[in-house]
Amino acid sequence: MLAPLAAQSQAWFFIQMSDPQFGMYSENRGFEQETANFEFAIATANRLKPAFVVVTGDLVNKAADAAQIAEYKRIAAKLDRSIPLYSVPGNHDEGNEPTPESLAAYREKFGPDYYTFRSHAMAGFVLDGNLLKSPQHVPDEAQKQEQWLRQELEKAKREGIKQLVVFLHQPLFLEDPGETEQYFNIPLDARRRYLALLHEYGVEHVYAGHYHRNAYGRDGPLEIVTTGPVSKPGGNDPSGFRIVTVKDGKFESHYYGLGYMPPAVDFKSEPEPRATLRELGVGVGILPPGPLNAITDVAGVSVGHTTVVRGDDVRTGVTAILPHAGNLFQQKVRGAVFIGNAFGKLAGSTQVEELGEIETPVLLTSTLNVPRVADALLDYMLAFPGNERVQSINPLVGETNDGYLNDIRGRHVGREEVLAAIRGAKSGAVEQGAVGAGAGTVAFGFKGGIGTSSRKLPAKFGGYTVGVLVQTNFGGILTIAGAPVGRELGHYYMRGELDTGKGSCMIVVATDAPLDARNLKRLAARTMLGLGRTGSSGSNGSGDYAIAFSTSRSNDVLTNDAMSPLFLAVIEATEEAVYNSLFMAMTTTARGHTVEALPIGRTMEILRKYGVAVKQP
Description:
Blueprint: H1 5-9, E1 12-17, H2 32-48, E2 53-56, H3 66-76, E3 85-88, H4 91-94, H5 100-110, E4 115-119, E5 122-126, H6 130-133, H7 139-158, E6 163-167, H8 188-200, E7 205-208, E8 215-219, E9 222-226, E10 240-247, E11 250-257, E12 302-310, E13 314-322, E14 333-341, H9 349-355, E15 357-358, E16 362-366, H10 370-382, E17 396-400, H11 415-423, E18 442-443, E19 446-447, E20 450-456, E21 465-473, H12 485-489, E22 504-511, H13 517-533, E23 544-550, H14 564-584, E24 588-590, E25 593-595, H15 600-609
Helix pairs in contact: 2-3, 10-11, 13-14
């Protein structure tokens, strides 16, 4: 029957889990970790209350293992009885080449291997992907399933159901419908037949697993969403599951790591407005910011961005910080680099360390773009009037890895983008959030990006300004003004199996205080204290670098005893810059992933709960 109109227009959601695969972590010697992950996933589903949960295959790792099967069933039975659970057969459940015996065994243990169900205005079609992938021992069964699917699609068409959704274990394809056959997709002949059938009946959504990471592909109006595992990941995506929201007939797909689970599913049509922490009434520290609360409060400093967003998989860019608008090679600035953890690629750092000078703009980008960006920076500097005879230039280029949201291997930032960022650099307000080098970054499990802040010292301490700009792409336990925001939001490092501590942070410090290279390095070192205040876990893979420079031309440099106020200034500015990168970033979707923006409303509630002073903005 046709679903009621109320059901068709109602906003609702379902959860897709995949590959709980009991026994995979230990190669069938046990399943302690799988139990912990799946129990957490089911408990989260009970809390969120979806319309249904579908588990797209590889329920166990060894089809004949009674203990693995019993454990899957035991935990699945904990799902609230009001929430239907639909199991899908995987290759580990029936064998890579199913036989009449293995199909019979699956059906006895789990029920039908292909079937249909209804939810709201949607018709769901569960397929046995093994019959598409390897039907050689069961050709009659494969043919019966294909005929059955056509009959069921025709039936749904007669009933007037528009939302037709297919679930199977093996994806028809990962990214491109014409991609080469391999272990993780369906052979071309079967793929073409099924795609033609799905197109004939207007199917637009297919959800699969098997890949143990996320992938996204499209064939015209038909999208193929491949979801990462509840069990052991096979790539960079953490263990987790996918939430699919349906509103006004539109499907939105968001993958969440087990430690990133949302407190609720929000159907707001408009994104939450963004604002800096200070604009929302929360000050950080005791020192006042400059007029712009930005690195450009240091006179002469300018910032430019080029943001590269292309299609469904490119979210990257470059950010340029210019100490002054002149010829930096001829008018070098004193500079220093401090390394909190050297898991990164900061090109040009050794010469800065040796000579204590910076002779180019400071550029930030994506990891694999560093050589290309440095080469373009060389082009810019060599062409600068006055540099006609120059034969050695030290380009200074930092990075973080934006590969979760960006096609990092494509290296999409080149000469044109670099020159645009440098030539577009300006003083004044700095654009923050998911821009420039921060377009594809992730911090504390939320969308990170570019943030900036500044501090102005009282006149009795010299009246100097310290400005900081950050590119945030790291993890930990988000703490704001001492409040455990990450813990309250359920996004934090070492929660369950999820490793949210990975990533890096690039920090650029500018000051007009007359400092030599040695004290600039000491100033840069204090940024790590500001980073620590935000809850950074300082992980093994976190490349944490600080670059500091002084715009002062005075040779009458400050003594060591004068440094303490500047140290406090840079700690506070770094802390606030990190927060601003989060508060200004917008939810970003790419490469089959969605990284949510920090929820400002809930965050402000948490700050009030923990007694953080919030002034009327």
